[in-house]
Amino acid sequence: MPDKVAPAEKTVPRSVVAGPDNSSEGIKLKKELGLWDGVAIIVGIIVGAGIFVSPKGVLLNSGSVGQALIVWIFSGILSLIGALCYAELGTMIPRSGGDYAYIGDAFGSLPAFLYLWVALFILVPTGNAITALTFAQYILQPAWPGCEPPYEAVRLLAAVITCLLTAINCYNVKWATRVQDFFTATKIFALLIIVIAGLVWLYQGHTENFQRPMAGTNTEPGYIALAVYSGLFSYSGWNYLNFVTEELQDPYKNLPKAICISLPVVTVIYVFANIAYFVVLTQDEILASNAVAVTFGDKLLGVMSWIIPFFVACSTFGALNGAIFASSRLFFVGARNGHLPTAIALINVRNLTPMPSLIFLCVITLVLLIIKDVYVLINYVSFVEALFTTLSVSGLLWLRYKKPDLHRPIKVFILLPIIFFIICVFLVIFPCYVSPWEVGVGIIIILSGIPMYWIFIDWKAKPAWLVNGSYNFNMACAKLFMCVQEDKTE
C-alpha cells in the first residue's frame, strides 16, 4: 500500500540510536508474543461481555431453545472457518493490521481506508466501550442489590478502567500480555463453574426446559441472520491476533496453531454454557434479564452467587485489555501507511510501545462512553463488521485468482473461503429488510469516509496551512510522548 503522507509530515524524527537495551535492533515493535500469548489474546478477547449478554439476543431472534443452540454451534463453526481463512491471509500477508492490510493488498488504498475509518470511530471503540460498561455494571452490581447501579457510576468506572488498561499497555508489552494470560484463565474458570453447575442441575432431573426444544422457532431468514449476528458478537475477536502479526514469534507456525487451539475450545465452552443457562432458566427468565449470568447465579448458587458478577468482571477486564492491545496496532499500521496522522505511528523510545495510538484509541472510547445508550451501536457494528469481513475473504479468493504464485505457507481448502463468503453475503443482505435503519446508518458511516480520503490522502496539492498544521501536531505528539518513527529494516 503506497505511503501518501504529505512530505512535511515525514520530518518527524526517526531514531538514530540503538534501542533502550543498547542493542542494534533500533526503535520498533518487538516480537514478544509466543504461542500461548497468542492463544490468550484470542480466547481473552472472544470470551468477554458477549457470552454473558448475547444469549438473550440469540434466543429472542431464534424463538426457541433448540434453534438458539444450533445458532451457537453454527456461529462457532463459522468463526473457525473464518479464522482459518484469516490464517492463510495472515501468513500470506504477514503484516500487522488484519483486515486493513488484506483489503489494501487485494483491492487498493480506498477500501482499506474506509475499513480503517469505520474501525477507528465505530467498530473498535464501540466494542471497547461496551466491554468497559459491562465490566463496570457487573463489578458495581453487588453494591446495589435488586436494582441497577446508577448509570453515571457505571460510566465513570468504565472510563477509569479504560484509562488504567491503556496505561498498562503504554508502559510494557510484557505487562499487558501477563494481564491477558491471568484474566484468560480466570474467565475460563468462571465459565466452567457455570457449565458444571448447569450439568449438575440437569443430572438432578431438571429437564423441563428441554421438553419441546424447537417450539416457537423463528424460520424467517432475516431473523435467523440477526440471531447469528448476536452469536457472532460473542465470538468476535477471533481475527484480532492478525492485528499483531509482526509482534508474534514465528507467525507462520504460531498464528494457525493459536487459531486451531482457541476456536474449538471457545465453541465447546460456549455451547455447554448455553445449555447450562437453558437448563436452569426458562425462556421468559432469560428474555427478561439484562445479565443472564447473574440471574443464573442468583437462582442456582445461593450465597455464592456473588462469584458470578466478580468473574464476569474479570472476564470483561481481560477482554478489554486484549482488545486495547491488538486494536491499537491496527491504527498504528494505518498511520504508518499514511492513512492516519503520522503521530499515531510513533513508538515510545523507552518502552517500545505505540503510545500515541493507544492514547488516541482511549480518547475515542471515552467520547463514546458519553453516549447515553452506547448499546444501540451494536446493530450498526454487526452489519459493518460483517460487510468488511466479507470484503476480506473475497480478497482471499481474488488473490487466489490474481496472484496464484504468491507464497502461501498455509493454503486452506478452497471450499472453506467460498462457504464463508456465501454465509457472510447472507448475513449482510438479509438484515437489510429486517433492520433497514441500522443498515442504512452503517452504509452512511462507511461512505462518510470517502470525502475524508479525498481531502487528506488523495489530494496532492494540500494548502500550506493544512500541511504545517499536521506537521506541528505530529511534532507536538513526538515531544509530549517521547516518541519517534520506527526504524526501517527492509
TrEMBL record:
Keyword Transmembrane: yes
Keyword Transmembrane helix: yes
Gene Ontology CC: one annotated term: plasma membrane
Transmembrane feature ranges: 33-53, 65-89, 110-133, 153-173, 185-203, 223-243, 255-280, 306-332, 352-371, 377-400, 412-431, 437-456
GO molecular function: L-amino acid transmembrane transporter activity
Membrane topology per record: Multi-pass membrane protein
Keywords noted in UniProt: Cell membrane, Membrane, Transmembrane, Transmembrane helix, Transport
Superkingdom of origin organism: Eukaryota
InterPro entries registered for this protein in UniProt: AA/rel_permease1, AminoAcid_Transporter
Localisation: Cell membrane
Family affiliation: Belongs to the amino acid-polyamine-organocation (APC) superfamily. L-type amino acid transporter (LAT) (TC 2.A.3.8) family.
Name of protein: Large neutral amino acids transporter small subunit 2
